[in-house]
Every structure is written in structure tokens, then in C-alpha cells.
Amino acid sequence: MFKKLSTSVLIASAMAVATLPVATPNAFAAGAEQEEKKKRPTRLASPSVGKKIAKAFDLYNEDDIDGALAIVLDIDASKEYDQAYVARFIGTFYAMKGDEEKALGYMKKAVEPDILNAADHGAALKLLADLQIMTKDYRGAIKTYKDWMDFTGQEDAQAWVRIASAHNELKEFAQVIKPADSAIKAFGDKQNQNPYVLKITSYYERKMYSEAIDVLETTVQLFPENKLWWLQLGQFYQLTEDYPKALATFDMAYQQGFLDKESHIKALASLYQVREIPIEAAKLYEKHLASGLLKRDEANLFAIANAYHAAMQIDKAAQYYGELATLTSDAKHFRKQGMLLKQDEQFKGAIVALNKALELGADDTGRIHMSLAESHFYLGQYKSAYAAIQKASKDPRTRKVARGWVSFIKDTAQRKGVSI
After folding, report:
1. In angstroms, what CA-CA distances link 245 with 128, 184, 227?
2. Domain range for residue 136?
3. 130-175 per-position pLDDT tens digit
4. CA 313, chain centre distance (Å)
5. How confident is the model at residue 221 (pLDDT cuts 50, 70, 90)?
6. How many helical (H) and strand (E) elements, i.e. helices and strands, does the chain have?
7. Could you give the CA distance from residue 407 to residue 411 in angstroms, rounded to a whole number?
8. Where are the membrane-spanning stretches (predicted)?
9. Shared domain check, 378 and 352
10. Rounded distance, CA 155 to CA 140, Å?
11. Which tens digit of pLDDT belongs to each residue from 255-268?
């Protein structure tokens, strides 16, 4: 059985999609090349500012980000447009250097006056939102991504994913669904797994398991090659106690080679047991004990022995209880092995195992002596049978039955001409 679900298991961090974009000279100059959605006057930087920006570009093209940053930091802009324009460059260069906090401050200065040319303002809004995500200003990022899409008129799938991720980080789980659905719509035919991850997380956190299952039933069709979807769907079926579907799902995952961990095999075996198909559980354990995927430890040997016993494969159950007994030197396992061997009429083996159980201090000695008496009797060893039944008759729990056997053993031995 799988461990209890947790959000960390359910999702690979959808926040990872919020990587910082790398700006290019074309991106800086995009305002002159793109059609503006919002009509606003086209502005140009002051000549002195423009010259220094051009020099910074030269250094940027030589991959000298520090040199380019030093130039733009040294610009003393007095006009409001120049200040916003320069702030965007500074913020972008700091972002390239990985200094998100400083980049964030300058991108806010670039955006707040709302006077940059349309393409420049849109790009600044986008970078500001990305920086807000990276600095964990989730509330700010939600607003800025929406502002960016409103301003540009774009329905951006990744922006919707990041909005949903921000709500998830804020534990506003109910508010995750709408932007996640918007992301799914925006991705169109090129579906991405992240919005589905976020929807499942939202439903799981709110204990809306049926809704989570609906999403997972979609994901296994859209992304059949991803084993995690199959495993999670099976787990959710278990959560809702829909064991037939859980078994069918895990079995399909197994047939595709997706169950490649010990916990996976145990989960499938457990479902076979729940569905009262213990023979399949036993065969599954046996196969993967042989392959080495399952350790030959006490827990696994007990599980396979118990499964074979439930499947009424007595000889196989006795075999694995014997291996378990040898591994652990535990009297109860020798006792179980002996009882099963007696049941399977393997009386010689039963006697060895039962005596070992007594030697190791097993409980319920009355029943063990009873089984020893029966085993010796059916082997024609009447003297040993009689000795064992005498001991069984001294145990209050087996006294009544044992007394009936005492006379039966004596009479049989007498008929056979055996002195006891």
C-alpha cells in the first residue's frame, strides 16, 4: 500500500515553470517593431540617454553584463520617461545577473508611471511578474500577470499556470481551478501537465477526491507515458475505496512497466488480496523476490507465505514459512510451517518443524503436541504418537480432544502388534 498522499508527492513543483526570461537587444527595442494594442504616444529617450544606452548595448553584445550595468546605473535621467526607460534596462540587467530583489525594485520603477511604449511596457510587466513569483510576492504576481495579459491582449498559458501556482502557494486552493482551466485552454493542442498537477493538488487539499479522479482520468489519456499519473489515479481510487478500479489501474500500470519500486509491487499485491485474488498476489511476490526487486526479508517472506496460504496452496505456503522460520529463528514461524506440512500430509517435515518450534519456546504447546501426535500416528510411529498425545492431554486447551486420541492410539498400536 502506498504511503499517505501528500502535496509533495502529488506535484512536481509547478513553480519551476516561472524561470526568468533572458532579455535580448531585440527585446529592448521591441517597441519600435510591434503593433501597439493600446494607443499611446510614441516616445524616445533623450539623446544623451540614448547614447549611453547604445554604449551599454555594445557591452551587452560582448557578454559584458557588469560593464553594461555600470553604464546604465551611471545615467542621471531627469525626465520621467527617461527614468522609466533606464529603470527597465537596469532591472533587466540585474535579472540577468540573478539579483532578483534589485531587479524587482527597478522594474517597479519602470512600470509604475505607465509611460513606456506599449511593447516595452508589456515586456516590463511580464518581467516584473516573473520576478514577483521568484521573490515569493505571489499576491503581486497574480495582479501583474493579469495586468500584463490585459495590456497586451494575450491569453498566455504559462502566465495562467503561474497565477494558479501563486494561489496554490498562498493556500487559496479553490482559486487555483479557474486559472488552471484557462491555462489548459490556452495551451490548446500542445497540452502541458502543470495545470493538471495544480488542479489535482487543489482538489486533494480540499478532500474533493472524486473531482481529482476526474482530472486524473483525463491525464492518463493525455499523458499515458507518464507513470506518475497512473500511480496517482490508482491511489485516488484507493482513497475512495473503489478497489476494482484501483486494481485495474495498477494492473495496467504494471503491464506497461511502470511499477518499478518495491512499494509499487506491494500496492498491487495488496489490491489482489483486497479483491480476494491471493494467488495473483503470491505469484507477484514470488516473481519479484526472484528478480531481486523485493528484498527477501521477514515482511516480504511473511506476505508471500500468507498469500499462498490464503490461496490454499499449502505446500508453497509451508515452503515460505520454512524459509521465514530459518531466517528469523522464530518459533511461531516453525509452528506455522509444521502445521501446514501436517495439513499437506508431509508428516516427516511437520515433525521436524514442530519440534523446532518447541525447542525455541513456542506458545500453544498443547496444539503442537497434538499435531506431533497426529503426524507420528499417520507415519505408524505409535510409541512417539502416544508420548506426544500424553503431553497434549496435560494442556487444558487440548485435554478433551487429546483424551479421545489416547485410547485410539493405544487400540491401533495393539492391533498392529506394537508395544507403546
Report:
1. 46, 26, 16
2. 44-154
3. 999 999 999 999 999 999 999 999 999 999 999 999 999 999 999 9
4. 34
5. very high
6. 23, 0
7. 6
8. none
9. no
10. 19
11. 999 999 999 999 99
Final residue of a structural domain among 100, 129, 154: 154
| pLDDT for the residue 40 | 74
Q: What is the pTM of this model?
A: 0.80
Cell of 159: 502566465
Q: How many domains does the chain have?
A: 3
**Nearest-angstrom CA–CA distance, 127 and 92:** 8
Contact 347, 353 (CB under 8 A): no
Rounded-to-integer distance, Cα 15 and Cα 170, Å: 12
DSSP codes, 55-93: HHHHHHHTT-HHHHHHHHHT----SHHHHHHHHHHHHHH
The CATH number of the domain holding residue 109 is: 1.25.40.10
CB 9 within 8 A of CB 231: no
* Same domain? 63 vs 148: yes
Q: Could you give the CA distance from residue 35 to residue 122 in angstroms, rounded to a whole number?
A: 12
295 within a domain of the structure (yes/no): yes
Do the beta carbons of residue 55 and residue 202 sit within 8 Å? no
Nearest Cα neighbor of 45 from 98, 103, 86, 90 is 86
Q: Does residue 168 belong to any structural domain of this protein?
A: no
- Alpha-carbon distance of 301 to 317, in angstroms, equals 10
- Tell me if 248 is assigned to some domain: no
* Same domain as 396, residue 343: no
Write the single-letter amino acid at 242: D
3-state secondary structure 289-347: HHHCCCCCCHHHHHHHHHHHHHCCCHHHHHHHHHHHHHHHCCHHHHHHHHHHHHHCCCH
Measured distance CA(407)–CA(222) in Å, rounded: 74
Domain match, 304 and 341 both:
yes
Provide the greatest CA pair distance for the chain.
127
Q: Grid coordinates in use for 370?
A: 497434538
User: How far is the CA of 208 from the CAs of 163, 205, 216, in angstroms?
Assistant: 21, 8, 13
User: Which cell goes with 6?
Assistant: 501528500
Contact 131, 20 (CB under 8 A): yes
In angstroms, the Cα distances linking 357 to 151, 154, 325 are 81, 76, 9
Residue labelled with grid coordinates 523476490: 289
